[in-house]
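note to self — DONT lose this again. spent like an hour looking for the file last time. sequence + predicted structure for the chain T wanted, 244 res
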Amino acid sequence: MKTPLAQAVRAGLARRKDAGKAAGAKAYLKSEMPLYGVAAPELRALCEQVFQAHPISMAADWRRAIEDLWDNATHREERYAAIELAAHPPYQRFISLALLPLYRRMIQEGAWWDLVDALAHRVAVLLATYPDRIKPTLRAWARHDNIWLRRVAIISQISFKNETDLTLLYDCITPSLGAGEFFLRKAIGWALREQAKANPDEIRRYLAAAGPELSPLSRKEAQKGLVLARKKGPVVRRPARSAK
């Protein structure tokens, strides 16, 4: 179903298109989908303007507009706009488990780091809101054949810092330790790097215990977090979230 909000976003993007920037972005992202060539700050400003001009009062209409932007996208920026709408602060009151199937589909269809990593932040909101329901899902995703669901499971807590559930983190990392896929090895390193900033002693312990199972790339990324932690000095560690 076409929505006025999505139509306004598309019209705004079309007015701002830049063929030169679009070609460069398409090459950088290795994207099969065309781009308008609209930079992220300009895209966010446009989205803010359109979202304010087309207010939404019901959760179902919000999800419908997200789906319209995503499903009917002809250019990559429309999918970025769908994720912007999902993250729009006034609509966080609509957060519910009804979003999980939509986010899962978007992750599998997006199937590239720029879209998937942004969607991981949306999944993180669901995890923080419904931990008992989302943790089993993430553990299942961590074992899924789809590498992008695995990646989201691994990086879903990167913003949680001291609130990270370490048991969940390791449960999501373990199935991919032997994976040769770059995006999984990088995800593991990223997750460990961010946790190292908050809890360096624990990550040192984990790196020692993991031994050769942990890829050199993942270990290198984790060690970057340890370096940053040393520069910042001692960190007061609060108890991690218990596994649920």
